[in-house]
Specification:
The chain is mostly beta strands and 216 residues long. It folds into two domains: 20-50 and 145-196, Immunoglobulins (Immunoglobulin-like); 57-137, Immunoglobulin-like. It has strands spanning 20-28, 38-43, 57-58, 60-62, 65-67, 70-74, 77-80, 89-95, 98-105, 113-115, 119-125, 132-138, 142-145, 151-157, 160-167, 180-184, 187-188, 192-196. A five-stranded mixed sheet has the order 6-12-11-8-9, with no helix packed on it. The radius of gyration is 18 Å and the shape is globular. The termini are far apart.
Length: 216
């Protein structure tokens, strides 16, 4: 059994206890596995209680990269940005879902950032142009990230119809275009395969810090 790279939380739903699971595999149009795709799930019917975000989540900076590269959190989650490198970083985002800036620093910033709106937040570093990360802030009751084989699993889902969607930073189109409704029974149902088209993205090449090391 694969080790699931999961941020999944159980669906919170009025009614009988949840007992179902769903396995999915995300691939691109060439059949290659897609890592860091987020599988999201909602009950197709029934009352859903609004779940709270986790108290705090870390997005680290290691070897001049954001780790993890992609995170998924529930609305209201606080995120810290520890810098484990021996140089300073300047973390920022201009995304509508969350705009913020943490000026040059090492170690752990004093205050975490509250991600209080749903949407995609693109992270960057003013010093290292190639550093890029993503945070999907969602109101979905359950979600998890795919591993390097493109596989992902959600447990603790309610039996019955469940809506599934997939999001990825390179998804060409909207997550709504990937949506499907599946009928879940007790245990694990058939593997759901999602084929997504990936858009071309540009990423700066790794290099030295700006200012010939003045920020080191």
């Amino acid at each position: 059994m694969q080790t699931w790279v999961a941020c999944a939380l159980a669906l919170v739903i009025a009614g009988p206890a949840a007992a179902a699971s769903v396995e999915a595999r995300v691939v691109d149009t060439d059949g290659n596995p897609v890592e860091d795709a987020v599988l999201l799930a909602w009950p197709a019917s029934g009352a859903v209680a609004r779940a709270k975000g986790r108290a705090i989540v870390d997005v680290d900076q290691k070897d001049k990269e954001f780790v993890p590269h992609v995170s998924a959190v529930r609305v209201g989650t606080k995120i810290r940005f520890p810098n484990y490198d021996q140089i300073r970083h300047h973390v920022y985002s201009f995304s509508p879902a969350k705009s913020f800036e943490i000026p040059l620093y090492k170690g752990i910033p004093a205050d975490p950032i509250v991600f209080d709106k749903p949407g995609v937040v693109t992270l960057g570093c003013n010093i290292h142009d190639w550093m890029q990360g993503y945070v999907l802030v969602t109101e979905a009751p359950a979600f998890a990230l795919s591993d390097e084989s493109g596989s992902v699993r959600l447990d603790g889902l309610p039996a019955g119809p469940v809506r599934l969607r997939v999001w990825h930073p390179e998804l060409d189109g909207k997550p709504e275009g990937t949506e499907r409704t599946v009928e879940l029974g007790d245990g694990v149902g058939p593997v759901q395969t999602f084929e997504i088209e990936r858009k071309k993205t540009w990423k700066a090449r790794r290099g030295g810090s700006r200012g010939r090391g003045r920020y080191r």
